[in-house]
Amino acid sequence: MAHPFRLLFVDDRRGAQEGFLAEVARPLGADVEVELAASLEGVEQRIARGELFDVVVSDLSFEQVGGGPKDGLLILAAARRAWPEAELLLHTAFAGSLGFDDGLELARHGLAAASILRKAADDSPSAGWARLRERIAGLRQARQSAAEPRGELLREQTFRRRRDLAATLRELADGEVAKLTVALHADPESCRHGMIGRSFALRDRLDALERIARLQRSALVVGETGTGKELAARALHAASPRRTKPFVKSDLAALPAELVAAELFGHERGAYTGADRRRRGLFAEADGGTLFLDEIGNLAPELQPLLLRVLQERTFRPVGGERDVTVDVFVIAATNADLEQQVAAGRFRADLLERLAVHRLELPPLRERREDIPLLAVTALAALRERYQATGFARFDAAALELLAREAWPRNVRQLENALERLFVEFDPATPRVTADHVQRILPARTAGSAAGHAAVKPLAQRVLDGEERATLRELEKRHGRDAVGEVIEQCFLAFAGPPDDEQTARLFDGMKANTWRQFAWQRGYTWEKVRRGEGGKA
Question: Which helix H or strand E contains 7, and what residues bound it?
Answer without folding.
Answer: strand 5-10
